[in-house]
Amino acid sequence: MTQDELKEAVACAALAYVVEGKIVGVGTGSTARLFIEALAGMKDKIAGAVASSDDTKKRLEGHGIKVFDLNDVTDIPVYIDGADEINVAMHMIKGGGGALTREKIVSAVAQKFVCIVDGSKLVDVLGRFPLPVEVIPMARAYVARELVRLGGAPIVREGVITDNGNIILDVEGLQIVDPVDLETRINQIVGVVSSGLFARRPADVCLLGTSSGVRTMTAD
Ligand code: 5RP
User: Fold this and answer.
1) Would you report the helix, strand and coil content of the chain in percent, each value rounded to 5?
2) In testing the pocket of ligand 1, which one of 2, 7, 10, 31 has its CB within 8 Å of the most ligand atoms?
3) N or C: which terminus of the chain has fewer CB atoms within 10 Å of its end residue's CB?
4) pTM for this entry
């Protein structure tokens, strides 16, 4: 199976986690886009969605799915999104698509995070994929120096401004052996909006696309 076919398989499998009559949180990226296509087939069975990016909002509305402002919502039984890397503890690197902050906010509200990835995203140690960090523009140089102190090599993502009007530093060279600790340390750098490390709030379920089918993983 191709990587796209594996993504499509997990996107369709995620429909089983959508709670009828309720609002679903929807992520961003190519796998989330396939989930939106699949969700369109059951749009009359859900109350609507909360989107993690302007792009996702546009796509959901394009399918006639009502998109709620997060401030008007308290109950999101499930958030469904892809990831750039995930480990067996369900810690993730996200933000390859630049939507990390809103993804983190919507997933914080959701009761359950279902991560949908093809098998290539499962790693022993997070960090080969550069860790995205969203930064207030005037703090760019300071935050970059602090990230170097943490052992990384930050690079400005050229030409990218997030939906929140900020920049992204992609941090290379990290071997993240303690994801919760690193997430906490990065959160403490003044000028950081959020990092793409999702360890303090990991996924609850990972649907992993493999050539032998969709494998369901949970953190024990
Ligand atoms: C976007 C994300 C995506 O979930 C992540 O980049 C994975 O994307 P894809 O499904 O295209 O592989 O965090 O900000």
Assistant:
1) 35, 25, 40
2) 31
3) C
4) 0.97
